[in-house]
Design goal:
Layout: H1 7-10, E1 13-18, H2 22-39, E2 44-49, H3 55-62, E3 71-76, H4 83-94, E4 100-106, H5 113-120, E5 125-129, H6 138-148, H7 155-165, H8 169-182, H9 190-197, H10 201-213, H11 217-229, H12 234-253, H13 260-267, H14 273-281, H15 286-304, H16 310-324
Parallel strand pairs: 1-4, 1-5, 2-3, 3-4
Length: 328
Protein backbone atom coordinates (compact mmCIF):
# COMPACT_ATOMS: atom_id res chain seq x y z
CA UNK A 1 0.00 0.00 0.00
CA UNK A 2 1.18 3.54 -0.78
CA UNK A 3 1.93 5.54 2.36
CA UNK A 4 -0.05 8.76 2.59
CA UNK A 5 0.96 11.91 4.46
CA UNK A 6 1.06 11.85 8.25
CA UNK A 7 -0.22 14.59 10.55
CA UNK A 8 3.32 15.87 11.09
CA UNK A 9 3.64 16.36 7.34
CA UNK A 10 0.64 18.68 7.07
CA UNK A 11 -0.15 20.31 10.44
CA UNK A 12 1.59 23.63 10.85
CA UNK A 13 2.40 23.55 7.15
CA UNK A 14 0.93 24.56 3.80
CA UNK A 15 0.29 21.93 1.13
CA UNK A 16 0.38 23.51 -2.32
CA UNK A 17 -1.47 21.37 -4.88
CA UNK A 18 -0.79 22.29 -8.50
CA UNK A 19 -1.55 20.83 -11.92
CA UNK A 20 -4.35 20.12 -14.36
CA UNK A 21 -5.13 16.54 -13.29
CA UNK A 22 -8.19 17.22 -11.16
CA UNK A 23 -8.44 13.61 -10.03
CA UNK A 24 -4.88 13.56 -8.68
CA UNK A 25 -5.33 17.00 -7.10
CA UNK A 26 -8.41 15.83 -5.27
CA UNK A 27 -6.61 12.70 -4.12
CA UNK A 28 -4.00 14.88 -2.42
CA UNK A 29 -6.70 16.94 -0.72
CA UNK A 30 -8.42 13.79 0.55
CA UNK A 31 -5.11 12.40 1.81
CA UNK A 32 -4.36 15.56 3.81
CA UNK A 33 -7.82 15.53 5.33
CA UNK A 34 -7.45 11.86 6.22
CA UNK A 35 -4.11 12.51 7.93
CA UNK A 36 -5.65 15.28 10.02
CA UNK A 37 -8.68 13.20 10.97
CA UNK A 38 -6.43 10.24 11.85
CA UNK A 39 -4.59 12.51 14.26
CA UNK A 40 -7.78 13.96 15.73
CA UNK A 41 -11.13 12.38 14.90
CA UNK A 42 -12.88 15.59 15.98
CA UNK A 43 -10.76 17.81 13.74
CA UNK A 44 -12.78 20.34 11.81
CA UNK A 45 -12.71 20.61 8.04
CA UNK A 46 -13.30 23.90 6.24
CA UNK A 47 -13.23 24.93 2.61
CA UNK A 48 -13.49 28.13 0.57
CA UNK A 49 -12.88 29.31 -3.00
CA UNK A 50 -9.83 31.57 -3.28
CA UNK A 51 -11.98 34.29 -4.84
CA UNK A 52 -13.70 34.71 -1.46
CA UNK A 53 -10.49 34.65 0.58
CA UNK A 54 -9.43 37.61 2.66
CA UNK A 55 -7.10 37.76 5.64
CA UNK A 56 -10.15 37.99 7.90
CA UNK A 57 -11.75 34.97 6.21
CA UNK A 58 -8.56 32.94 6.53
CA UNK A 59 -8.35 33.87 10.20
CA UNK A 60 -11.91 32.67 10.76
CA UNK A 61 -11.27 29.41 8.92
CA UNK A 62 -8.08 28.69 10.84
CA UNK A 63 -9.38 29.72 14.27
CA UNK A 64 -10.03 26.92 16.79
CA UNK A 65 -13.63 26.06 17.59
CA UNK A 66 -15.33 24.94 20.78
CA UNK A 67 -14.96 21.32 19.68
CA UNK A 68 -11.42 21.06 18.39
CA UNK A 69 -8.32 23.18 17.86
CA UNK A 70 -7.13 20.95 15.01
CA UNK A 71 -8.35 22.09 11.60
CA UNK A 72 -7.86 21.39 7.91
CA UNK A 73 -8.56 24.33 5.61
CA UNK A 74 -8.81 23.85 1.84
CA UNK A 75 -8.64 26.87 -0.47
CA UNK A 76 -9.59 25.99 -4.06
CA UNK A 77 -8.92 27.74 -7.37
CA UNK A 78 -5.93 29.64 -6.04
CA UNK A 79 -5.52 31.22 -9.48
CA UNK A 80 -8.58 33.36 -8.63
CA UNK A 81 -7.08 34.82 -5.44
CA UNK A 82 -7.83 38.59 -5.30
CA UNK A 83 -4.74 40.77 -5.55
CA UNK A 84 -5.53 42.45 -2.25
CA UNK A 85 -5.42 39.05 -0.49
CA UNK A 86 -2.01 37.95 -1.78
CA UNK A 87 0.07 39.67 0.90
CA UNK A 88 -2.06 38.30 3.72
CA UNK A 89 -1.90 34.74 2.41
CA UNK A 90 1.87 34.91 1.95
CA UNK A 91 2.21 36.29 5.46
CA UNK A 92 0.22 33.39 6.89
CA UNK A 93 2.12 30.81 4.81
CA UNK A 94 5.42 32.19 6.15
CA UNK A 95 4.33 31.32 9.71
CA UNK A 96 1.34 28.92 9.62
CA UNK A 97 -0.58 28.00 12.75
CA UNK A 98 0.76 24.79 14.29
CA UNK A 99 -2.65 23.16 14.63
CA UNK A 100 -3.87 23.94 11.11
CA UNK A 101 -3.27 22.08 7.84
CA UNK A 102 -3.75 24.57 5.01
CA UNK A 103 -4.22 23.18 1.49
CA UNK A 104 -4.01 25.55 -1.47
CA UNK A 105 -5.27 24.11 -4.77
CA UNK A 106 -4.21 25.72 -8.05
CA UNK A 107 -5.85 24.36 -11.21
CA UNK A 108 -2.86 24.84 -13.51
CA UNK A 109 -2.18 27.41 -16.19
CA UNK A 110 -0.29 30.70 -16.03
CA UNK A 111 -2.85 32.65 -14.03
CA UNK A 112 -1.64 33.20 -10.49
CA UNK A 113 1.87 31.95 -11.24
CA UNK A 114 3.40 34.89 -9.38
CA UNK A 115 1.79 33.77 -6.13
CA UNK A 116 2.88 30.18 -6.76
CA UNK A 117 6.50 31.21 -7.21
CA UNK A 118 6.47 33.15 -3.95
CA UNK A 119 4.80 30.32 -2.04
CA UNK A 120 7.35 27.79 -3.33
CA UNK A 121 10.15 29.76 -1.71
CA UNK A 122 8.65 29.48 1.78
CA UNK A 123 10.05 26.73 4.07
CA UNK A 124 6.62 25.74 5.41
CA UNK A 125 5.21 25.07 1.94
CA UNK A 126 5.24 21.58 0.39
CA UNK A 127 4.18 21.29 -3.25
CA UNK A 128 2.32 18.34 -4.70
CA UNK A 129 2.39 18.49 -8.51
CA UNK A 130 -0.03 16.60 -10.74
CA UNK A 131 1.19 17.03 -14.28
CA UNK A 132 -1.03 15.73 -17.08
CA UNK A 133 -0.26 12.10 -17.81
CA UNK A 134 0.93 11.20 -21.28
CA UNK A 135 -0.88 8.45 -23.11
CA UNK A 136 2.13 6.19 -22.72
CA UNK A 137 2.02 6.68 -18.95
CA UNK A 138 -1.55 5.46 -18.45
CA UNK A 139 -0.71 1.72 -18.19
CA UNK A 140 1.88 2.59 -15.53
CA UNK A 141 -0.80 4.59 -13.70
CA UNK A 142 -3.08 1.53 -13.79
CA UNK A 143 -0.28 -0.66 -12.44
CA UNK A 144 0.35 1.83 -9.64
CA UNK A 145 -3.33 1.92 -8.74
CA UNK A 146 -3.49 -1.87 -8.61
CA UNK A 147 -0.39 -1.95 -6.38
CA UNK A 148 -1.96 0.61 -4.05
CA UNK A 149 -4.84 -1.82 -3.56
CA UNK A 150 -2.43 -4.63 -2.68
CA UNK A 151 -2.18 -6.54 -5.95
CA UNK A 152 -0.30 -6.49 -9.27
CA UNK A 153 -1.19 -6.43 -12.96
CA UNK A 154 0.87 -7.43 -15.99
CA UNK A 155 1.69 -4.94 -18.73
CA UNK A 156 -0.67 -6.46 -21.29
CA UNK A 157 -3.53 -6.35 -18.80
CA UNK A 158 -2.85 -2.70 -17.95
CA UNK A 159 -2.75 -1.74 -21.64
CA UNK A 160 -5.99 -3.59 -22.36
CA UNK A 161 -7.71 -1.91 -19.41
CA UNK A 162 -6.76 1.52 -20.77
CA UNK A 163 -8.08 0.57 -24.21
CA UNK A 164 -11.35 -0.73 -22.78
CA UNK A 165 -12.03 1.96 -20.18
CA UNK A 166 -10.42 5.03 -21.73
CA UNK A 167 -8.16 7.76 -20.37
CA UNK A 168 -10.23 9.15 -17.53
CA UNK A 169 -8.12 8.61 -14.40
CA UNK A 170 -11.11 8.34 -12.10
CA UNK A 171 -12.60 5.55 -14.23
CA UNK A 172 -9.27 3.75 -14.48
CA UNK A 173 -8.78 3.91 -10.72
CA UNK A 174 -12.30 2.58 -10.13
CA UNK A 175 -11.66 -0.27 -12.58
CA UNK A 176 -8.39 -1.13 -10.82
CA UNK A 177 -10.21 -1.17 -7.49
CA UNK A 178 -12.93 -3.42 -8.87
CA UNK A 179 -10.43 -5.90 -10.28
CA UNK A 180 -8.44 -6.14 -7.04
CA UNK A 181 -11.64 -6.69 -5.09
CA UNK A 182 -12.88 -9.43 -7.39
CA UNK A 183 -9.50 -11.17 -7.63
CA UNK A 184 -8.39 -10.58 -4.06
CA UNK A 185 -4.89 -11.84 -3.37
CA UNK A 186 -4.26 -12.88 -6.98
CA UNK A 187 -2.08 -11.25 -9.61
CA UNK A 188 -4.17 -9.76 -12.43
CA UNK A 189 -3.38 -10.70 -16.01
CA UNK A 190 -4.96 -9.72 -19.31
CA UNK A 191 -7.42 -12.64 -19.22
CA UNK A 192 -8.82 -11.46 -15.88
CA UNK A 193 -9.16 -7.94 -17.27
CA UNK A 194 -10.95 -9.23 -20.36
CA UNK A 195 -13.37 -11.17 -18.18
CA UNK A 196 -14.79 -7.89 -16.89
CA UNK A 197 -13.89 -5.23 -19.45
CA UNK A 198 -13.49 -7.17 -22.66
CA UNK A 199 -17.23 -7.60 -22.77
CA UNK A 200 -17.61 -4.24 -24.41
CA UNK A 201 -18.34 -4.93 -28.05
CA UNK A 202 -16.16 -2.03 -29.22
CA UNK A 203 -13.21 -3.30 -27.19
CA UNK A 204 -13.62 -6.81 -28.61
CA UNK A 205 -13.83 -5.53 -32.17
CA UNK A 206 -10.76 -3.33 -31.88
CA UNK A 207 -8.83 -6.18 -30.26
CA UNK A 208 -9.39 -8.19 -33.45
CA UNK A 209 -8.41 -5.29 -35.70
CA UNK A 210 -5.33 -4.36 -33.66
CA UNK A 211 -4.03 -7.92 -33.75
CA UNK A 212 -4.67 -8.21 -37.50
CA UNK A 213 -2.94 -4.94 -38.43
CA UNK A 214 -0.04 -5.91 -36.17
CA UNK A 215 0.35 -9.07 -38.27
CA UNK A 216 -0.53 -11.43 -35.41
CA UNK A 217 -2.69 -13.80 -37.43
CA UNK A 218 -3.34 -16.49 -34.82
CA UNK A 219 -4.11 -13.96 -32.11
CA UNK A 220 -6.49 -12.10 -34.44
CA UNK A 221 -8.35 -15.29 -35.33
CA UNK A 222 -8.65 -16.20 -31.65
CA UNK A 223 -9.90 -12.71 -30.77
CA UNK A 224 -12.39 -12.94 -33.64
CA UNK A 225 -13.83 -16.26 -32.48
CA UNK A 226 -14.03 -14.97 -28.92
CA UNK A 227 -15.79 -11.79 -30.07
CA UNK A 228 -18.34 -13.61 -32.24
CA UNK A 229 -19.06 -16.19 -29.54
CA UNK A 230 -19.65 -13.32 -27.14
CA UNK A 231 -22.31 -11.87 -29.43
CA UNK A 232 -20.35 -9.06 -31.06
CA UNK A 233 -22.08 -8.02 -34.28
CA UNK A 234 -20.06 -8.68 -37.45
CA UNK A 235 -20.60 -5.11 -38.63
CA UNK A 236 -18.78 -3.82 -35.54
CA UNK A 237 -15.74 -5.86 -36.51
CA UNK A 238 -15.61 -4.48 -40.04
CA UNK A 239 -16.14 -1.01 -38.61
CA UNK A 240 -13.16 -1.50 -36.31
CA UNK A 241 -11.05 -2.69 -39.25
CA UNK A 242 -12.11 0.35 -41.27
CA UNK A 243 -11.19 2.67 -38.40
CA UNK A 244 -7.81 0.99 -37.97
CA UNK A 245 -7.02 1.20 -41.68
CA UNK A 246 -7.99 4.88 -41.87
CA UNK A 247 -6.04 5.66 -38.73
CA UNK A 248 -2.96 3.88 -40.07
CA UNK A 249 -3.17 5.74 -43.40
CA UNK A 250 -3.56 9.11 -41.69
CA UNK A 251 -0.75 8.36 -39.26
CA UNK A 252 1.70 7.56 -42.05
CA UNK A 253 0.77 10.70 -43.98
CA UNK A 254 0.79 13.05 -40.97
CA UNK A 255 3.42 15.83 -40.84
CA UNK A 256 6.44 15.14 -38.68
CA UNK A 257 7.43 16.88 -35.44
CA UNK A 258 3.90 17.12 -34.03
CA UNK A 259 2.99 16.86 -30.36
CA UNK A 260 1.09 13.76 -29.24
CA UNK A 261 -2.12 15.76 -28.79
CA UNK A 262 -1.84 17.46 -32.19
CA UNK A 263 -0.96 14.18 -33.90
CA UNK A 264 -3.98 12.47 -32.33
CA UNK A 265 -6.24 15.23 -33.64
CA UNK A 266 -4.63 15.06 -37.08
CA UNK A 267 -5.06 11.29 -37.29
CA UNK A 268 -8.52 11.32 -35.72
CA UNK A 269 -7.86 8.75 -32.99
CA UNK A 270 -7.71 8.81 -29.18
CA UNK A 271 -4.18 9.68 -27.98
CA UNK A 272 -3.65 6.21 -26.46
CA UNK A 273 -4.08 4.71 -29.96
CA UNK A 274 -0.96 6.44 -31.29
CA UNK A 275 1.44 3.93 -29.79
CA UNK A 276 -0.46 1.08 -31.46
CA UNK A 277 -0.42 2.90 -34.81
CA UNK A 278 3.27 3.70 -34.45
CA UNK A 279 4.10 0.05 -33.89
CA UNK A 280 1.83 -1.12 -36.71
CA UNK A 281 3.07 1.43 -39.24
CA UNK A 282 6.53 -0.11 -39.39
CA UNK A 283 5.15 -3.10 -41.30
CA UNK A 284 2.86 -1.31 -43.75
CA UNK A 285 3.54 0.32 -47.10
CA UNK A 286 1.13 2.84 -48.59
CA UNK A 287 0.19 0.36 -51.33
CA UNK A 288 -0.56 -2.38 -48.79
CA UNK A 289 -2.75 -0.03 -46.75
CA UNK A 290 -4.70 0.79 -49.92
CA UNK A 291 -5.30 -2.89 -50.58
CA UNK A 292 -6.34 -3.42 -46.95
CA UNK A 293 -8.89 -0.59 -47.20
CA UNK A 294 -10.40 -2.19 -50.30
CA UNK A 295 -10.54 -5.59 -48.55
CA UNK A 296 -12.32 -4.07 -45.57
CA UNK A 297 -14.82 -2.30 -47.84
CA UNK A 298 -15.57 -5.56 -49.64
CA UNK A 299 -16.02 -7.46 -46.37
CA UNK A 300 -18.32 -4.75 -45.04
CA UNK A 301 -20.43 -4.92 -48.21
CA UNK A 302 -20.59 -8.70 -47.95
CA UNK A 303 -21.63 -8.53 -44.29
CA UNK A 304 -24.41 -6.07 -45.07
CA UNK A 305 -25.56 -7.80 -48.25
CA UNK A 306 -24.73 -11.01 -50.02
CA UNK A 307 -22.65 -12.88 -47.44
CA UNK A 308 -24.37 -15.97 -46.07
CA UNK A 309 -21.65 -16.73 -43.51
CA UNK A 310 -20.38 -13.61 -41.67
CA UNK A 311 -17.86 -15.69 -39.72
CA UNK A 312 -16.21 -16.91 -42.91
CA UNK A 313 -16.17 -13.37 -44.33
CA UNK A 314 -14.46 -12.01 -41.22
CA UNK A 315 -11.95 -14.85 -41.06
CA UNK A 316 -11.07 -14.19 -44.70
CA UNK A 317 -10.63 -10.51 -43.86
CA UNK A 318 -8.25 -11.36 -41.01
CA UNK A 319 -6.21 -13.62 -43.30
CA UNK A 320 -6.11 -10.97 -46.03
CA UNK A 321 -5.04 -8.13 -43.74
CA UNK A 322 -2.38 -10.13 -41.91
CA UNK A 323 -1.08 -11.31 -45.28
CA UNK A 324 -0.73 -7.76 -46.57
CA UNK A 325 1.48 -6.63 -43.71
CA UNK A 326 5.19 -6.44 -44.59
CA UNK A 327 4.39 -6.48 -48.33
CA UNK A 328 6.36 -3.87 -50.23
Amino acid sequence: MVRGPQAADVLGRVTLVTGKEEFLNERTVVAVRAAVRAYDAEAELAETPAADLSLATLGELAAPSLFSSIRCVVVRSLENLPEESVEGLLGYAAAPAEEVALVLVHGGGPKGSGVLNKLRKLPAVTESKSGELKTSELPAFVASEVRSYGSSIDKEGAVFLVQAVGQDLRSLSAAAHQLTNDFAGAAIDVEKVKKYYGGRAEAKSFAVADAAFAGRRQAALEELRWALEGGTAAVLVTSAFAGSARGLARFKSAPGRMSEADLAREVGVPPWKLRTLRDQSRGWSDAAIGRAIRAVAQADADIKGAATDPSYTLERLVLTVTGLRDQR
